[in-house]
Design a protein that fits this description.
about 200 residues; alpha+beta; Nuclear Transport Factor 2, Chain: A; 8 helices; 5 strands; globular
């Protein structure tokens, strides 16, 4: 299985785009495109911080990802059935820990993949009133063709499209994280221990 740090490096390469649109006009596909424009700018301008001041680099990455990625929603999904047992404080703590580890792993993986031949597939069917869609991209490189699927959901509160999940070459990251959490609970049997010991690299 591909390591998580490689998944997130590939994620950056897969969504590479030069399209810039106004924030109030962003559809689900444009959200992914704009996210990449901003992320590549951070990599280009601040990559040196990864060695010199990694926390500063992680913060820059967080500033780009946080408005687009539904971390609270994803974290709750990762907890799975155990979310019902968790207190509001435990849910909040895990969301923070999950976000921090996900961002640091993502930041470290961004430089793994170089320039690729990338194709964004048109959204199948009309967007219409749909509130959840899948955006597909394909990338060709020395290792062959890779396919990424982005699950995008429209927020009821803000009406903005948010990233809910990513599947790379059939590997569903949300399911993988949920499996890790469930295994940790079976081993430790204590929510606080699992939350405090959580790492996206495990």
């Amino acid at each position: 299985m591909v390591k998580l740090v490689q998944w997130f490096g590939l994620w950056v390469a897969l969504v590479a785009s030069s399209v810039v649109v106004k924030a109030d006009a962003l559809g689900p596909q444009q959200v992914i495109e704009q996210l990449t424009v901003d992320m590549l700018r951070v990599v280009r301008e601040e990559r040196h911080l990864l060695d010199e001041n990694p926390e500063a680099f992680y913060q820059s990455v967080s500033n780009v990802l946080s408005p687009v990625v539904a971390f609270d929603y994803i974290a709750k999904g990762v907890m799975g059935k155990y979310a019902k047992q968790a207190t509001p404080a435990q849910k909040s703590t895990f969301s923070d820990v999950f976000q921090m580890n996900l961002i640091s792993t993502y930041a470290k993986g961004m430089a793994i993949y170089g320039d690729r031949d990338i194709a964004v597939e048109p959204l199948k069917g009309e967007l219409g009133a749909r509130r959840k869609v899948t955006i597909i991209q394909k990338v060709r490189g020395d290792d062959g063709e890779n396919v990424v699927s982005y699950t995008m959901g429209k927020s009821k509160a803000t009406q903005e499209w948010m990233l809910l999940n990513v599947t790379i070459n059939g590997i569903n990251l949300g399911n993988s994280f949920r499996s890790q959490f469930a295994q940790a609970m079976k081993k430790k049997g204590d929510l606080d221990q699992v939350i405090n010991g959580w790492s996206a690299k495990s």
